[in-house]
Structure prediction request, 244 residues.
Amino acid sequence: MTQEWNLDGRQIVNWKTCDWQPYPALDGGDSNLEWHPIRAEAGPGNGYYLLKVAPGGGAKLHEHTGQEEFIMLAGELVDGDGTVLKEGDCVSYDPGTRHRTTSPKGCTLLAYIAAPINTVEGDDELDTMKAGRKVVNWHDAGFARYPSLPETADPIDWHPIRANEETGEGFYIVKFHPGSSSALHEHTGVEEFIMLDGTLTDPDGTTYGTGDCISLPAGSVHGSFSEKGCVTVAMISGPLRTLV
Ligand SMILES: [Fe+2]
Ligand SMILES: [Fe+2]
Prediction:
């Protein structure tokens, strides 16, 4: 192993202890929505951020010009077709999805939005919403061997939700067994992930714990180790380049 790790520009936010501010993206700042931006991009609504919906709040009808993905961290969110999204659900919508959401009891989620959100007038497109939505709950997901990095002595597993097996791009659940590590690799795009259970240690010695939301910019180089095992959900926007 000759290549050194690079974790410059990394951000770590824990959703249970972070602060919140009014969410600015949808039509003048609906007071029922608050966010904590981790990687906020120009243009309404896109980036990587935590979103908290107050009881009775929600999002008016909007259209995603790119992929929308989120993880339900607490509470419930009701999608426009009546589907109830609950704690542990990992949700992926194809570009072009239109929907509105409500949260009678309130909820908190972690969102990855690839392109700006536009509020729109008109009706929900229920068929499109249903066809373009995938929901997997990490508590009861099945796992298979992760294919996108060379195997280590203690390989890692995944549950692909939207994924390219050859490049490692996509949105997927990753499980490290106790003692597992990922081979050293470079990210040609952004890697973002949340620790859902357990701990994971990066090569600079930083250990992430449950609730941590991590953002690694393009150009990051690392291989991670989990002493006791962990479950994460990752969103990876560019191909992985293996360095071992
Ligand atoms: Fe949305
Ligand atoms: Fe990585």
User: Anything to note?
Assistant: The pocket of fe (ii) ion (ligand 1) is lined by residues 62, 64, 68, 99 (CB under 6 Å). The mean pLDDT is 91.
